[in-house]
Amino acid sequence: MKLGRKLKAITMLTTTALTLIACGQGNEDGSSEAADGEVTTIQFYTWGGESDLPIYEPRIQAFEAANPDIKVDFVQVPSDYDTKLQTMFAGNEAPDVVQVAENGQNFASKGLFIDLTEYIEESSIDVEDNWADTMTQYTYDGQPFGLPDRGGPEILYYNKDLFDEAGIEYPTVDWSIEEYTDAAEKLTKIENGETVQYGASGMDWVPNWGVFIKSNGGSLVENNEVVINSPENLEVLTWFNDLYQDGYVGTYEFYESVAQSGADSMFSQGKIGMLTTGFWNIGNFTQLDDLNFDIAPMPSFSEQVTWPFGSALAISKQSDKQDAAFRFVEYMTSEEAQQILGEGLVDSPANIKVLNSEEFTNRQVNEKDLNLDVVGISTERVIIDGIFEGPYYGELTGEFSNQVKEMLLGRLTPEEALEKMQESGEKIMEQY
Q1: Of 50, 73, 199, 322, whose CB is crowded by the most CB atoms within 10 A?
Q2: What confidence tens digit (pLDDT) does each residue in 153-184 have?
Q3: What digits encode the pLDDT tens for the residues 369-417?
Q4: Is 90 exceeded by the pLDDT of residue 8?
């Protein structure tokens, strides 16, 4: 997540591992307890850089203040995060706590994380109330391996000025796919035979069409089997392709016309009326004085569904301080810590109770008012597709994206694209 907000700079904690002060001996269960007055240091790894510090440091400082017997060695990896972790696990030098997103299934499938079931039960954590279906993304083979920390499901950004100019009512919490399509057409503007403003962002990125597949009762993967070639999915891809071919969605040529551009950039410049993506743009967009926007839940076919974004905290099996590590994970994902995360809006909390609280929904973002209740509403609408439930996420989404691009470029029909995705997807699944 890459949201930014004008906060005071927080000095980055050293990434050099702190020396344990008379650390206790490891127990048979792999945990390590410190004697009275002693301090246990746990190492916490995540991706990101300086702009991400406000996501973690205020919470880490609050945790250490409440738990003086535990210190957190916080390490950020600015690039090649997965490769770094894989190397550390291979060398038996893995951090105690790691941040994971879609990559979590891959690590969990190799038995690198502890099963959190007993910890969750002993702590009386209400998984359903805290995270709804989001927890499914961080469960492998029936065992939860991470607790959701950062959230922010896919939402709809819309340019209020462009809606007003076109005479379109703003999106509602139950906006239909027909209303979205009609708005995309009306928001598209052509001057001298050239499209200068597109109605929607679109493109081949899997969340941009996968969310509508779930909304139409379809799936990409179910029970570790690719099921993408279905009548329900054909209906969605045909609609998605028509939207592009009719000229209502930003084209590849449009984005490539400006160096280092993309849907986010074009939306910020007022050249796209609607953008479908995650929470992370809110901070940056609210800093643009000329961009008058708001957010809404994703439009729907037959069911109100959205695509999940976010990350979780997992504990390494190699850790000999698992009890201390869980105390940290439990705090970071608690309502108290999630409220701290929500105060800065540098990123979205994952905890539904926090997202639905008045403290979160009623605050301004860079002195601008937004419908922040949309984030909680959307989180409750998350339904996890089976593509998130195994180590094959990266390969499948890469292949599916390629075939949808071929379709949008006119080299495949929707039927042919689905057939190719089914065939290639089955071959990928044979590896797992």
Answers
A1: 199
A2: 999 999 999 999 999 999 999 999 999 999 99
A3: 999 999 999 999 999 999 999 999 999 999 999 999 999 999 999 999 9
A4: no
- Note the pLDDT of residue 344: 79
Q: Dig out the tokens for 414 from the structure.
A: 């929707």
Task: Count the helix, strand and coil residues of the chain and give each as a percent rounded to the nearest 5.
Answer: 45, 20, 40
* C-alpha closest to that of 116 among 107, 127, 106: 127
**Do 299 and 344 share a domain, yes or no?**
no
User: Which residues constitute the domain of residue 246?
Assistant: 155-307+392-429
SS (H, E, C) 6-48: CCCCCCCCCCCCCCCECCCCECCCCCECCCCCCEEEEEEEEEC
Distance CA 48, CA 54 (A): 11
Give the alpha-carbon dihedral of 386, 390, 393, 394, to 10 degrees.
Answer: 180
Q: What is the rounded average pLDDT for all residues in the chain?
A: 90
With H, G, I as helix, E, B as strand and everything else as coil, classify residue 163.
helix
CATH number at residue 366: 3.40.190.10
Indicate if the alpha-carbon torsion angle 204, 207, 210, 216 is positive or negative. Answer: negative
> How far is the first Cα of the chain from the last one, in angstroms, to the nearest whole number?
29
Report d(CA 371, CA 285) in Å as an integer.
14
Number of structural domains in the chain: 2
Query: How much is the average pLDDT of 305-330?
Result: 97
| 147 and 164 housed in the same domain | no
Rounded to the nearest angstrom, the gap between the alpha carbon of residue 42 and the centroid of all alpha carbons in its chain is 25
At 239, the pLDDT band (50, 70, 90 cuts) reads very high
Whole-angstrom CA distances from 303 to 89, 156, 176, 180, 241 are 41, 16, 10, 15, 21
Pairing of strands 155-159, 293-296: antiparallel
Task: Please report, as a single letter, which amino acid is at residue 30.
Answer: G
Cα gap 17→96, rounded to integer Å: 12
Q: Tell me the H-state helices in 257-334.
A: 263-268, 282-286, 322-332
**What is the Cα–Cα distance from 51 to 35, expressed in whole angstroms?**
37
Residues 64-97 pLDDT 10s? 999 999 999 999 999 999 999 999 999 999 999 9
Q: Are residues 296 and 165 in the same domain?
A: yes
Q: Which of 419, 421, 412 is nearest to 245 (CA)?
A: 412
